[in-house]
Design brief:
Largest sheet: 6 strands, antiparallel
Helix content: 40-55%
Number of domains: 2
Strand content: 5-15%
Oligomer: single chain
Structural class: alpha+beta
Radius of gyration: 23 Å
């Protein structure tokens, strides 16, 4: 007699309440994760487990690892592959979906927030399009590092609950150890989810999806005169804030397709992402971004472009009159630039230690960035040097900007003059430190940690780097090497890949 997998003994207990599966039938395919031969726990996010109301000890036990590998489906789970479409590098793919991911279920965390628990790398689904549905250990651990770093930086993000190696080889260019990531998100609703049903002119499911998104993320909008339009505005606001936060720390997503833009405003999909070193808005690291579509400096514009695709999908729900709907949506989209500028300049005032708002603040910021670019100054170190300079210690600033010494000295004087106008403000230096981290996931350090984990079975460098990244704002002498950029010749040839 066949015993259902979810009944083969229980180890980890999840208090599931699966609203997506319950309310959106027809928007997904029920599916099961693939079983793996030899699961082994490589990472467990104990603080996140506690936040979710889960027992970290149970998850770390053999039965819990079997759950995290997909070998056991816990009671109450409703594993499913979500349907979505997406513009990928500008070209529309009408059918993408979860090709190597599964939504296991939803839990309500200790703060009353609904969170998705999902697998990545759990095997083929009906959306796999010929792929194997698997993930490899290196990219899975990269997502752990990046998600935890972004969370520590205060940037909305999906996070890894666990990473489990599978004991099997996954074939890419060479055989690599397989792994499954357990990802936690406010939801996995994407711009591409709306595009999927709009492209099929399935207005019934599009309406149900929109109602669900509002109930989950913006319940106050349910009584709005035009709820779909209000949802568009709310997503624009969240994305304007998110992209400004990315830009403030030098984060380059690398693959800003519409299926990688969430309705919740969380960062999702850490495939070919990387961080700036020497400041240059044209910086691209992704091997597949050959034309620089998703370069660092183009991210705000791409976000607005993606939001225009969301607006197009929602037009039939905004107003029955197509022309009126387009006019209303366009007015919302026009406001994205202003919202982004507002968030961006607020972050830069914190980074520069500026109290209040003055007319020339944007020019002061722009001139600082121009200095960084002309001097090929490391973005993170350059911004962090201003914390010391604000306290009268300009040695680091002068050393970093020596290639543009005269211009830098003139700018520094202008900056001091502007800062002195609010010199009595308490907490300014603390705000500067919180806006300009000492540590980011330096590309060469990430690669070294992944290399050791994958090829030498040594998780030590990964664990040490993770420890540093979880406390990014407080510089410590023993972590000095984690603040140093790669050599220029390393950065010039550095590439990232969509490995998961």
């Amino acid at each position: 007699m066949h015993v259902p997998r979810q009944c083969r003994g229980q180890a980890a207990t999840f208090d599931f309440d699966n609203s997506y599966a319950r309310e959106l039938q027809g928007l997904y395919v029920d599916w099961q994760p693939a079983e793996v031969p030899q699961p082994a726990l490589k990472f467990l996010n104990r603080p996140l487990a506690t936040e979710l109301g889960l027992s970290a000890d149970d998850l770390a036990a053999p039965g819990g690892v079997a759950v995290l590998a997909g070998n056991r489906v816990p009671t109450g789970a409703s594993p499913l592959a979500q349907a979505y479409a997406g513009h990928q590098f500008g070209g529309f793919s009408p059918r993408l979906g979860d090709g190597r991911a599964l939504l296991l279920g939803e839990v309500v965390d200790r703060h009353g927030q609904r969170r998705d628990i999902a697998f990545k790398g759990s095997g083929r689904t009906p959306f796999s399009r010929g792929g194997d549905g698997k993930a490899t250990l290196g990219p899975v651990l990269r997502e752990v590092l990046m998600g935890e770093a972004m969370h520590a930086l205060g940037i909305p993000t999906t996070r890894a609950l666990a990473a489990v190696s599978t004991g099997e080889q996954v074939f890419r260019e060479t055989p690599l150890p397989g792994a499954v990531l357990t990802r936690v998100a406010a939801s996995h609703l994407r711009v591409g989810t709306f595009q999927y049903f709009a492209a099929r002119q399935d207005l019934d499911r599009l309406q149900r999806l929109t109602d669900y998104a509002i109930a989950r993320h913006d319940p106050a909008l349910a009584t709005h005169e035009r709820p779909a339009l209000a949802l568009l505005g709310a997503v624009c606001e969240r994305q304007a804030r998110l992209i400004a936060q990315w830009m403030s720390v030098g984060f380059i997503h690398g693959v800003m397709n519409t299926d990688n833009m969430t309705i919740s405003g969380e960062t999702i999909d850490y495939g070919p992402c990387a961080f700036l070193e020497a400041y240059d808005p044209a910086t691209v690291f992704s091997s597949i971004d050959r034309d620089g579509r998703y370069a660092y400096g183009r991210q705000p514009g791409i976000a607005q472009w993606n939001l225009a695709r969301l607006a197009e999908a929602l037009l039939p729900l905004i107003d029955a009159d197509a022309e009126r709907a387009a006019t209303l949506a366009f007015d919302v989209l026009k406001g994205f630039g202003d919202r982004y500028t507002l968030h961006d300049l607020a972050l830069w005032r914190a980074k520069l230690g500026l109290v209040g708002e003055q007319q020339g603040d944007a020019v002061l910021r722009d001139d600082w960035l121009a200095l960084l670019q002309r001097g090929q100054v490391d973005f993170t170190l350059g911004c962090r040097s201003l914390v010391d300079a604000a306290q009268g210690r300009a040695e680091a600033f002068e050393s970093l900007t020596q290639a543009v010494h005269a211009e830098a000295a003139a700018w520094l004087q202008r900056w001091h003059t502007r800062r002195n106008q609010g010199a009595g403000e308490e907490g300014v230096l603390l705000a500067m430190r919180r806006a300009s981290p000492a540590y980011i996931p330096r590309n060469h350090l990430v690669e070294a940690a992944l290399q050791a984990a994958v090829h030498d079975s040594d998780l030590g460098p990964f664990e040490q780097l993770l420890t540093v990244l979880r406390n990014p704002f407080d510089a410590r002498p023993e972590h000095k090497e984690y603040a140093q950029p790669a050599l220029p010749e390393q950065t010039r040839v550095y590439q990232t890949f969509c490995g998961t």
